Amino acid sequence: MMVFDVSKQILPDRRAPQMTDVAAAARVSLATVDRVLNRRKGVKQRTTERVLKAALELGFLTEEESELIATPRPPNIVFLLPAGTNPYLRLLGEKLRVRAAAKGRDAPSIRCIFIESFSARALAAALRHHAAWADGIAFMAIDHPEVREAVEAVTTAGIRVVTIVSDLPHPARMGFVGLDNHSAGRTAAMLLARFSKRTSGSLALVAGSRNYRTHSEREAGFLALLEEMYPDLRVVGVREGHDDAGENYRHAISLLEQHPDLIGIYNVGGSSNGIARALVERNRAGDVLFIGHGLTSDTRRFLIDGTMDAVIDSNPDTILSTAITLLCKPPDQLQPGHAGTALGMDIFFRENLPSGFGITPRP
User: Fold this and answer.
1) To the nearest 10°, the Cα dihedral for 173, 110, 269, 286?
2) What pTM was estimated for this model as a whole?
3) What are the structural domain ranges in the chain?
4) Do the beta carbons of residue 218 and residue 178 sit within 8 Å?
5) CATH of domain 181-313
6) Topology of the domain comprising 76-178+316-343
7) What does the alpha-carbon distance between residue 320 and residue 92 come to, in Å, rounded to a whole number?
8) Residue 128 in contact with residue 154, Cβ under 8 Å?
9) Long-range contact pairs involving 293-297 (C-beta distance under 8 Å, separation at least 24)
10) Any idea which fold 12-70 has?
């Protein structure tokens, strides 16, 4: 794309039209002309048309140049992800880095920003701040009034919003990209109960935080299925580990010490490596069933060595591609509030792990 530099508007031919001439003819500021010619945000359509008309009539632009500038530019897209030790979220960030580096001429500009985890205030501030550059924002939502208010503000300003992994129902968001998390929780409960072949015993859940709907919905689904089908299996409470490997390790150690009849752990969130470490240290790996989320290099290793029994996954490339597609849709195809298509749920065991696992985006 051509770039017009205000500092280089003095041409050898003093009679040649300048950007200042375009600004005067269009009755706008020089800064506005610069924004129009470089296809930046923040200029109304009728103002853009007036500037281009003036530039064309003055001979500052050719017909071809004017048509190119008038063509809508690819959108600027920001992904907001929680910072921390969650390997699945880091995998999403790495895949976004690869996509951003491979950007083609007509592809959207992508930025991935990691923000303070589990902080509604930090997420709300990030939504407002990055709306200045972005045309669309995809983020892992926290269900909180401050976040809902920020979504209201940025969508009113014309910014498209998509939630990924964890939803925030809001009439102005373009959609949610992620699993049916209630179903995922029910699936985890079914697997633990069937694998254990026990009619009694304790089961434990370790969540990131109930502030994320994805975690509270998985928990609700898990508890609902046990109540319906396995009422004699006892749930010994939900520990919040904030997707931190250290916290998850300490929770797992405590569960193993306090509940000798523990037969299974469901990690509702991420950072399964902390729980795996506790099981190995206490010689309970393979004895206590362990199911978690997100196929990453560490959960793959735990499946292979028998520390984990199953991993529930949603293809990270599909999450990113679907979110980007929603944020790039032409205006006449926009459907604010549309729930989108639920992503497929993959369940991996040691015997069906995919080959070629890595960060290269899948087609």
Assistant:
1) 140
2) 0.81
3) 12-70, 76-178+316-343, 181-313
4) no
5) 3.40.50.2300
6) Rossmann fold (3.40.50)
7) 8
8) yes
9) 293/88, 293/184, 293/267, 293/268, 293/269, 294/86, 294/87, 294/88, 294/91, 294/270, 295/346, 295/348, 295/353, 295/354, 295/357, 296/87, 296/88, 296/91, 297/87, 297/357
10) 434 Repressor (Amino-terminal Domain) (1.10.260)
pLDDT in tens for each of the 363 residues of the chain?
455 655 445 444 556 888 888 888 888 888 888 877 877 776 777 887 788 888 888 888 887 777 777 667 789 999 999 998 899 999 999 999 999 988 766 789 999 999 999 999 999 999 999 999 999 999 999 999 999 999 999 999 989 999 999 999 888 888 999 999 999 999 999 999 999 988 789 999 999 888 899 999 999 999 999 999 999 999 998 899 999 999 999 999 999 999 999 999 999 999 999 999 999 999 999 899 999 999 999 999 999 999 999 999 999 999 999 999 999 987 656 665 555 556 889 999 999 999 865 544 433
Return d(Cα 192, Cα 198) in angstroms, integer.
Answer: 10
Domains 12-70 and 181-313 share a fold: no
112: closest CA among 134, 143, 142? 134
Distances (CA, A) of 103 to 58, 98, 108, 110, 113: 34, 9, 7, 8, 17
Contact between 304 and 350 under an 8 Å Cβ cutoff? The reply is: yes
